[in-house]
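Subject: design request, 422 residues
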């Protein structure tokens, strides 16, 4: 699996050669993150913080709201690690501070130990200090405290000369059960595929920035197919992870999907198929995932009305239901609800909507029987979705906030605000 990498220096995305010399300044990292997030989780490294020459904290926080980010660079104590986990980082990457006394205070599954190595010897302090330890020695010391290792071959970093494939098997075996990510010199899709087959992930920066490695090819590199036509089954889901239907993909269609940022597939009858090109039911491509057996793709998309199916239903199994379906209906009524309808009144009268939200929240708080609680919760959720529609906000914006909050490990006491009625 590919982990695209964004290194930050002076508020810009950069790439260094050998961990020292700036070889590339890629500019604003936000659009880069918006593109890289198609591959899933991305790595963000604050080089200024790692080198003790400043910080890109505000920018990293912004990137954590753009894409799922594993964050590293200058995280040298427990408090700093917790701050990043609370800020929404999926994982934190610790190098210099990767010691048992710090690691045991953090959630193991969300911690990666960075083992930057020059000629097999681990280096710290922004690659400036040699430790005298080998990568394998360091792994044995730390693997019970972390969920993963990031192994960077610094002498290969940014040189586009290939990575140390001959070392990966040994590293994976030593690290078990922690997951290994390999960085430094990876240039081709074949390297990504071989590293994946050995049970590790690949973190890539320079090859993606320079175009030596196509992002779509990097994503699909580990895939295999037992079909004569070599197509990959592609499960298409909306942003709520609800299945819309099944399609087929090949290397060309995935490249075009990534290039356009749209749902593009391979039609066995027509070849390249740009979903919605004639019907208008287009898809914004949000993410591409590979299944555990590396023979099925999942496209997560933002589907436009009337839906995915050629029969003008949201899914190939018929109409959608539940909160996402209601949220879409209300968003449509923002444009076309008839005058005098209750929804139109709520949309046009913020005082009425506020009163109903307060009223229904109180009724839910007072409900006790299961049926009554369910009824009042439904009422409150309806008015909450009207408030979202009125603000022209999609339901998945709320889901995203809830997901970010679920990553927090510092918990507030949750007491009622002064003046709230119990």
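Subject: RE: design request

Done. Sequence follows.
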């Amino acid at each position: 699996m590919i982990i695209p990498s964004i290194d930050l220096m002076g508020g810009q995305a950069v790439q260094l050669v050998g961990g020292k010399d700036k070889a590339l300044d890629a500019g604003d990292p936000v659009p880069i993150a918006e593109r890289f997030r198609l591959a899933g989780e991305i790595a963000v490294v604050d080089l200024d913080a790692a080198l003790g020459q400043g910080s890109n904290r505000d920018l990293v926080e912004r990137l954590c709201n753009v894409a799922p980010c594993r964050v590293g660079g200058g995280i040298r104590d427990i408090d700093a690690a917790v701050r990043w986990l609370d800020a929404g980082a999926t994982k934190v990457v610790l190098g210099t501070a990767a010691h048992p006394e710090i690691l045991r205070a953090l959630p193991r599954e969300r911690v990666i130990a960075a083992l930057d190595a020059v000629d097999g010897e681990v280096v710290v302090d922004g690659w400036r200090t040699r430790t005298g330890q080998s990568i394998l020695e360091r792994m044995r010391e730390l693997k019970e405290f972390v969920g993963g290792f990031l192994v960077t071959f610094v002498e290969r970093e940014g040189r586009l000369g290939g990575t140390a494939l001959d070392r990966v098997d040994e590293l994976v075996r030593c690290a078990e059960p922690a997951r290994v990510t390999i960085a430094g010199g990876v240039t081709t899709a074949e390297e990504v595929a071989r590293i994946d087959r050995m049970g590790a992930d690949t973190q890539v920066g320079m090859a993606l920035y320079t175009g030596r490695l196509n992002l779509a090819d990097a994503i699909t590199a580990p895939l295999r197919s037992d079909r004569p036509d070599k197509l990959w089954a592609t499960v298409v889901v909306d942003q709520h992870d609800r299945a819309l239907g099944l399609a087929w993909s090949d290397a060309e269609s995935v490249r075009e999907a990534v290039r356009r940022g749209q749902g593009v597939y391979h039609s066995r009858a027509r070849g390249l198929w740009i979903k919605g090109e004639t019907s208008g039911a287009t898809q914004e491509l949000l993410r591409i995932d590979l299944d555990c057996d590396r023979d099925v793709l999942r496209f997560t998309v933002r589907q436009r009305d009337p839906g995915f199916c050629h029969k003008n239903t949201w899914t190939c199994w018929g109409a959608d239901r539940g909160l996402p379906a209601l949220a879409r209906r209300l968003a449509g009524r923002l444009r076309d609800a008839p005058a005098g309808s209750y929804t139109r009144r709520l949309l046009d009268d913020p005082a009425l909507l506020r009163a109903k939200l307060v009223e229904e929240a109180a009724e839910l708080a007072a409900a006790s029987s299961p049926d009554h609680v369910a009824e009042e919760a439904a009422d409150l959720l309806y008015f909450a979705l009207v408030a979202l529609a009125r603000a022209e906000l999609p339901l998945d914006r709320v889901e995203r906030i809830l997901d970010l909050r679920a990553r927090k490990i510092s918990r507030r006491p949750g007491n009622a605000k002064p003046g709230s009625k119990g």
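DSSP finds 16 helices and 18 strands in the chain.
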